[in-house]
Amino acid sequence: MGLLDWLLGRPPSLGGSGAVAKERLKLVLEYDRAQLSPGELELIRDEIIASISRHVDVAREDVQIKLEAGGRLVAEIPLGRRGPDGARVLGGAGGAGAGPA
Amino acid sequence: MSGRVITLTSGKGGVGKTTATANLGVALAQRGRTVAVVDGDIGLRNLDVVMGLENRVVYNLVHVIRGAVDADRALIRDKRVPGLMLLAADQHSDKDDVTPDEMQAMCDELRAHVDYVLVDSPAGIEQGFRNALAPADEVIIVTTPEVSAVRDADRVIGLVEAAGKPTPRLLLNRIKPDLVARGDMMATEDVLDVLRIAILGIVPEDSAVVAATNRGEPVALLALTRSGHAFRNIAARLEGEDVPLMSLEGAEPGLFARLTGLFRAGATSPGGA
């Protein structure tokens, strides 16, 4: 296709950018329809982390909060790997550097 | 007579509202209807130029609303298509100088004389948009297959519904079939999938529109153009005809399509030449 475009003097295809446009559009509309901005979602994320952290350790870096199709706010909050006494390792996807120091 | 008031709006500017209004006006008049096209873009008058009637504007919408002249006097008759009339916008007023109630009253006066009142809304969602929306029995959302334009269309659909109007229908403008074919442009189905409203019609990108607009001739006046054919299809659907969406295969119509288009347009457009 690239060669054909070149031979016919057409601008190169950006490789299905129409599908990219549709995905971006869907995401942007989810935010618009929920009257929420990605920045506000970040704030909500921080507040959720702060709130839950008062009770239990949260693996901050792994907390995800997403706006899903149909206007659903979905949060995934893995709990901290190190318990207060290093007693238990909870949640998280595991991985390097996660063990007790 | 009590004509239908149809407002064309989009949110985003530059997607072809004015061109669509002019061409739907022409196409409906070619079908034998009486049509008043109204430029709702007060302060930024454009419909007169797109229709090639700019030299004949004497009175405008604000004169009618203020009662300086009656609507019949302010309407400019398009000599190329019997039944087609233009009410121009005031170039020296502001959108805030007119209220939705005044637009409603003016369109009610117009609809007593014609089958269709087509209101060309300004871009945006402020006063000018609210003025154009107020008198509408129906709304057509004009958009192009681009993220920004469709996003604005979605917002406007919500505002139209919140105003208690029926859910608008979509006019998807400036589709480039070759880009859609290679996956570099959202297809009609993609846009509909996201906006979830009924489709009124699709109009392919057509360089003839640029040339026609340069000359002040709405492309629907020209028999052989693809986009003109698209607008005639849309006019037919507005009148309740079940016309399938035009095929976008092939960037230009073949000889056969051109000839059938010629006959079709010849049968409907009075006094060509």
What is this structure's SSE topology?
The complex is a heterodimer of chains A (101) and B (273).
Chain A (H helix, E strand, L loop, with lengths): L1 H6 L9 H18 L3 H16 L10 E5 L3 E5 L25
Antiparallel strand pairs in A: 1-2
Chain B lengths: L3 E6 L7 H14 L4 E5 L7 H4 L10 H6 L4 H4 L1 E2 L6 E4 L12 H12 L4 E5 L6 H7 L4 E6 L3 H16 L6 E7 L1 H5 L6 H8 L3 E6 L2 H9 L10 H13 L16 H14 L5
Parallel strand pairs in B: 1-5, 1-6, 2-4, 2-5, 6-7, 7-8
Antiparallel strand pairs in B: 3-4
Helix pairs in contact in B: 1-11, 5-6
What tags apply to this protein structure?
heterodimer, A: 101 residues, alpha+beta, 3 helices, 2 strands, disordered C terminus, B: Rossmann fold, eight-stranded mixed beta sheet, 15% strand
Distance between the termini of chain B: 32 Å
CATH structural fold name of chain B: Rossmann fold
Indicate the percent of residues in helices of chain B: 40-55%
Q: Which CATH architecture of chain B is right?
A: 3-Layer(aba) Sandwich
The biggest beta sheet of chain A reads: 2 strands, antiparallel
Beta-strand residue percentage of chain B: 15-25%
Overall pLDDT of chain A, averaged?
78
Major beta sheet summary of chain B: 8 strands, mixed
Number of strands of chain B: 8
Total count of domains of chain A: 1
CATH level 4 superfamily of chain B: P-loop containing nucleotide triphosphate hydrolases
